[in-house]
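Today's session is about reading a structure prediction critically. Students often jump straight to the picture, but the first step is always the sequence itself: look for stretches that repeat, for charged clusters, for runs of hydrophobic residues. Only then move on to the predicted structure, which in these notes is written as discrete structure tokens rather than atom positions. Here is the chain we will use throughout the hour.
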Amino acid sequence: MADTSGFGNIHSNAGGWNGLRFEYTPIGTDSSLFSHCVFRFGKATGDSVNCYGGVLRALQTDKIAFRHCSFENNYAFYWGGAIYSYKTNVLLAHCNFRRNHAGNDGMIYGYGGAVCYVSSEPDISHCHFSTNSSNGIGGAASFEYSRPLLMNSIFTQNFSALGGAIGFLRSVPDRPIANLLIYNNEAVFFGGGIASITASPVMTNLTIVNNFAPMGGGYYCNFEAHARLYNSILWGNTCAGDFGSQVWIWDVNSVPEFHHCAVQYGVEGFGGSTFTGTYNNCIESYPVFEDENSSNFRLAQGSPCIDAGTASLPAYPLPATDLDGHERVMYGLPDLGAYEYQGIASIYPHGQQARIYRVLPNPAHRGQSLVLTDIGDEVSALRLFTADGRRMSGLERPRVMGGRIVLDELFQASGAIPGLYLLQVEQVDGYSSVVRIVYQPSSR
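Below is the predicted structure for this chain, in token form.
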């Protein structure tokens, strides 16, 4: 459709409105709350002051929140296609951002195609960013000198020069960045999914898949970026060459860390400078998604990512739920990626028959037994965890009599109180299953 309003002319304010402006509001000013609103054709252009934030420019103010709102087809000549925030903690919850753009034909590049935060501490949760773009950093979101809380959100089909979905700049975020699905984004140069530049975010349970950039299809680190990635999946991302499809490290002073992640090709596939960071308890096996062709990146039965994570994070507690709102820890340890597996609790290669164990009866009391069906001597160890993944006790080479193992010793050693527990049954073939137990110690 032809643009008859002039909105597409980035050097004119025709065809759009200049957005909402909150600047230097006094302390004590009442909150500004927007709910179930649709914002379209906000246009920030003209002189330098008016070139930030197509819908919202917030400068050194506070108490602004958007819930269940949509931001579509907005534009900023410089930063923040929909929202620009400086020293303002704008809250976003359950919002959609589509087809917003930041950038111009000059030498000041656009940051944050949808949202751009500078020196701010925003809370962003349950948001969906798609088809946003910038010509600088962060096709959907850019965070500079900021401490975002960024959770339970989806980024897809966003585009930028660096960081097709998200760009972190000169920041040391230590608030939760968790449960993000980042797929089918693209960058012109580096980091189709995420670019971390002089930034050290701590991130957990990200699924970064099928993104593209000539260098670092999934993830990019530059200029002393010491980002730490936990319980995450980097898979199916592509680049222009033979190396660096998942990760690209620009300089020797960037020392990223990977803990309990699934990384396609492993360290050998990293591109750029020599990797000198931590690569701890990572796997390099296909994650086994439910239906990758339809962009369903939930884990399928038999995924090696099930129960392969860690509940110990350095900056904040493991979030209680996943991207779908399900319990984050189902069977002893957190899974990798944005989604926690909800199916049968046996951990086996895809397609292999799972062994199923039962506790009879359940709730379980002292003296009652774990019934292991048709096992012989295949059980090598038992591990007892709380429902949130904290290990309580263990038993090596448990005594099996008549297909039963008495659990008294395991529970007494842990000092267990009434509640829900997870029993991990490890087998001599290296695989394991997990059984949920409701424990009610006898009053006798």
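Discussion point for the tutorial: Confidence is low (pLDDT under 50) at residues 347-353.
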